[in-house]
């Protein structure tokens, strides 16, 4: 952790503005005022504190990020609890990694990364491609075979993302739907898990049925 006395005056002022009541909206307002400031971002990141690191992600310049620097950021996240780790990684993904072609290519190389957060991000990215896009990518069969073989041996954070991919493959691709449902029945991942009102269960047979029917109902009669 960076000694506060060694931080710039600007970084110290920002740190003093944080307290337990600081919300995500507050961080976004601060980031909007700062815009991009990569040096300040790295100062805030060096504090090893969760909220300053969230702000740091928002004001980073992705042109300054490469494979080594991103690996270092992800490794730094290990000091946080699992919830904070996934939040930081999701913010890095949404606010920096997906905004650059070279960093998207980096994500695409993470399927066998030694870092679970990077593997999770690879699988989440593949699921998001299906969820966001109208045309399913051509590698669904390959990914589904990998998921079927490896999902039960993966760490929980990666399991969730692999399950996410299988869910959206099952929703959008008729030829794989039965396999995806069967995968859920065999693994029983998330079966019986309660979800918040309005949210779709992660258990694959339920997820696929609900999300597929939502889209079927929207099709022209």
TrEMBL record:
**A UniProt-annotated Pfam family:** DNA_alkylation
Instruction: Extract the SUPFAM superfamilies matched here.
Output: ARM repeat
Superkingdom of origin: Bacteria
> What is this protein identified as?
3-methyladenine DNA glycosylase AlkD
